[in-house]
Specification:
Radius of gyration: 23 Å
Distance between the termini: 40 Å
Strand order of the largest sheet: 2-1-3-4-5-6
Bound molecules: 5'-deoxyadenosine, iron/sulfur cluster
Largest sheet: 6 strands, parallel
Strand content: 15-25%
Helix content: 25-40%
Length: 464
């Protein structure tokens, strides 16, 4: 470490998009001497990359800032300075208030501006300690200004291809904090995927708040949908697995559905949020589809890829939700069957969203009860799927060492964690494994032994 290396500590809240953004912030700051540290205590710069989607996000940020304050003071006593930045969606939504309430904060910037971080740091570092607030939705595309270097520290990784949302579901802050929907060009995505593969990546998850609304402009001037992009990425040598998240049922077009049947690299797992099974609630949420539309879509997807494991998001206790509406959600879950486990949340009013202004808000007790009922059902469906795995042989991509010595952990095509005993050199390889047992959400298995007739030669060698 050279003497002018500075320590950067980033705390990330919320979704994968924020995880990706934090990584890119680190990439932007590396050339000006910042090195990521796992230790906040004597960092030169602390970034809180915040999430605004559900819980009491802003309060969490203020209490974290309270904890940071003494560290800043200590650093100042030693003649140094700890710069503190609040980034992400809370910053976007409440920038000015943060500046006013927490004067210790040097910088507040939204998700669209982190490529301008070096400039902001220069400004904030001046002796006078200017404060920087940058929560514009700039006209330039932030992706065009990010360094090309992509850090990959494993065999799986995320790649943001699309950002923002124009759907305006009435409960959701994303259209306000992440701005209008924007897609990266296919070429820049393919180039980034190639670099990631060269650095050891085997599986990519394409990210976007509305990832299947992807509509990048190709070099030929034509608009590419997600189906076409997936096919092009499947041609990248060495990229073995492709996933994407999060999608909206309305943007699931036929080409993408066909890709699920035709592109072997596209994994048979799909997170397809529906939020509710009640047409009345779907309408109030501005989802712009019915429960029947969703059933038809699921049928089409399963026709294309019969072993598709589905996951979803649900909101219980949306304003005005009756027992009957909730019963419709339960019915939908029973009918669809979510093998891959789904996420369910109690509705929480987000300031500035239309649903927050509705009078008919439900009590916490009702929300708690519904959440419990829904989670039990979803949990049981996932458990039943996991319990159907013993005896099956499935390809597993090994990602890292397990907790027990000699153990490796990988993922099934359906995103289940799989544990086997095997040598470290298998990390990064896809190995056929016979599942022997399930425990909790994990599967345990053993590699299909070399020597079985259908075993490809490379695999026999890898196992030898
Ligand atoms: N209350 C509860 N859940 C919410 N989500 C988004 N906004 C809210 C809210 N105000 C959930 C939705 C979405 C997921 C990312 O978070 O289910 O799909
Ligand atoms: Fe929010 Fe998703 Fe609806 Fe967009 S589509 S408003 S991100 S829930």
């Amino acid at each position: 470490m050279t003497s002018n290396t500075k320590k950067l500590f980033i705390k990330t809240y919320g979704c994968q998009m924020n995880v990706y953004d934090s990584q890119r912030m680190a990439d932007v700051l590396a050339p000006i001497g910042y090195e990521v540290s796992q230790d906040m205590d004597d960092a030169d710069m602390v970034i809180l990359n915040t999430c605004h989607i559900r819980e009491k996000a802003a309060e969490k940020v203020y209490s974290e800032l309270g904890r940071i304050r003494p560290l800043q003071d200590r650093k100042a006593e030693g003649g140094g300075r700890m710069l503190v930045a609040v980034a992400g969606c809370v910053a976007q939504a409440e920038g000015e208030e943060i500046m006013a309430r927490a004067p210790q904060v040097d910088m507040v910037f939204g998700p669209q501006t982190y490529h301008r971080l070096p400039e902001m740091i220069a400004q904030a570092s001046r002796a006078a300690g200017e404060k920087v607030l940058d929560t514009d939705f700039p006209v330039e595309d932030k992706f065009d200004f990010l360094p090309e270097e992509t850090k990959v520290d494993g065999v799986t990784g995320f790649l943001t291809i699309q950002e923002g949302c124009d759907k305006f579901c009435t409960f959701c802050v994303v259209p306000y904090t992440r701005g209008a929907e924007a897609s990266r060009s296919p070429q820049s995505i393919i180039d980034e995927a190639r670099r990631m593969v060269a650095a050891g990546l085997r599986e990519v998850t394409l990210l976007g708040q509305n990832v299947n609304a992807y509509h990048g402009e190709g070099a030929d001037g034509k608009e590419w949908g997600l189906g076409r992009l997936v096919r092009a990425l499947a041609d990248v040598d060495g990229l073995e697995r492709i996933r994407y998240t999060t999608s909206h049922p309305r943007d699931m077009d036929d080409d993408l559905i066909r890709a699920h049947g035709e592109v072997p690299q596209l994994m048979p797992y799909l997170h397809l949020p529906v939020q509710s099974g009640s047409d009345r609630m779907l309408e109030a949420m501005n989802r712009k589809h019915t429960a029947d539309d969703y059933f038809r879509l699921v049928d089409k997807l399963r026709e294309a890829r019969p072993d598709l494991a589905l996951s979803s998001d649900f909101i219980v206790g949306f304003p005005g939700e009756t027992d009957q509406d909730f019963a419709d959600t339960i019915k939908l879950v029973q009918k669809v069957g979510y093998d891959a486990g789904a996420f369910s949340f109690k509705y929480s009013a987000r300031p500035g969203t239309p649903a927050a202004a509705v009078e008919d808000q439900l009590s916490e007790a009702v929300k708690d009860e519904r959440l419990k009922g829904l989670q039990q059902l979803l949990e049981a469906q996932q458990a039943a799927f996991n319990q159907s795995m013993p005896g099956k042989t499935i390809p597993v991509l090994f990602e890292k060492k397990g907790r027990m010595p000699g153990q490796l952990v990988g993922r099934s095509p359906y995103l289940q964690p799989v544990h086997i005993d095997g040598p470290d050199r298998l990390i990064g390889s896809i190995i056929e494994c016979r599942i022997t047992e399930t425990k909790g959400h994990s599967l345990f298995g053993e590699p299909v032994m070399a020597g079985s007739e259908d075993e490809p030669l490379e695999r026999k060698r890898a196992l030898a």
